[in-house]
């Protein structure tokens, strides 16, 4: 019987084929209590989403647009910046993924080492090297970067 | 001898509760497998398997509550759609543990859990 690590590694690789080459490491157990948006916002007790079932800043509309997600993170001190995966020691970066219809699907956060960390839906957290690792059918592609002073 | 039927929608009936449970379990498995990686509450809820669970009608509410109790997950949209009620306080939105407990308490009060 496969162990936990083996099962989730297989699941991640199935969902995100680019990670088969780029590599990643599992950094948490699975949880349905918080999602990628929450994780990017350093919140691991709420499921963030602009819907009746999700947490969303009270002054923002419940609409799934890139602008609304940027606005939510603006309330946390982030500002849009040039798209660059390079580490800037004095700033924390997050990247918003969208599909072709421009609806947001995912947010990743850069760690202090320059790696990226993501919560995969109701699955586990992972750490990986480049944003392209999560690009594909499930999340689309990373298009908007934001940063704030650490 | 005719078997009693469990009516679950104007279009679907199951010959017995076991058939309903089997249909529900298959839909849950498909839904979990195909939406586990998603953060979007909307995408989870509009998934075909989730919509088919809602289409099973009120007879499936005890099964949804049991699934919520035993395995967790985002069943809140389905429960609202199936029951027309929402026991979750607005300030608890997004706090899955509290939302779950609100629905389970709602179910206990009605003898469904």
**Mean pLDDT, all residues of chain B:** 90
Mean pLDDT of chain A: 96
What is the total domain count of chain B? 1
The portion of residues assigned to helices of chain A is: 10-25%
Main beta-sheet strand count, sense and barrel state of chain A: 7 strands, antiparallel
Intertermini distance of chain B: 32 Å
Give a brief outline of the structure.
The complex is a heterodimer of chains A (150) and B (113). With 150 residues, chain A is of the alpha+beta class.
Topology at a glance:
The complex is a heterodimer of chains A (150) and B (113).
Chain A: H1 4-15, H2 19-22, E1 24-26, H3 36-40, H4 66-74, E2 79-81, E3 91-98, E4 104-110, E5 116-119, E6 125-128, E7 141-149
Chain B: E1 6-7, E2 13-14, H1 17-35, H2 41-46, H3 48-55, H4 61-71, H5 76-83, H6 96-109
Antiparallel strand pairs in B: 1-2
Helix pairs in contact in B: 1-3, 3-5, 4-6
Structure notes:
- The complex is a heterodimer of chains A (150) and B (113).
- Helices cover 20% and strands 25% of the residues of chain A.
- Chain A has 150 residues and is an alpha+beta fold.
- Chain A has one domain (4-149).
- Chain A has a 7-stranded antiparallel beta sheet with strand order 1-6-5-4-3-7-2, sandwiched between helices.
- The longest helix of chain A is centred in the first third of the chain and has 12 residues, at 4-15.
- The radius of gyration of chain A is 15 Å and the shape is globular.
- Chain A starts with a helix and ends with a strand.
- The mean pLDDT of chain A is 96.
- Chain B is mainly α and 113 residues long.
- Chain B has one domain (15-109).
- A two-stranded antiparallel sheet of chain B has the order 1-2.
- In chain B, helix 3 runs parallel beside helix 5.
- Chain B is globular, with a radius of gyration of 14 Å.
- The termini of chain B are far apart.
- The model of chain B is unreliable at 1-10 (pLDDT under 50).
- The A-B interface holds A 11, 15-16, 32-38, 45-49, 51-56, 64, 103, 105-106, 119-123, 138 and B 35-42, 72-74, 76-77, 86, 88, 93-97, 99.
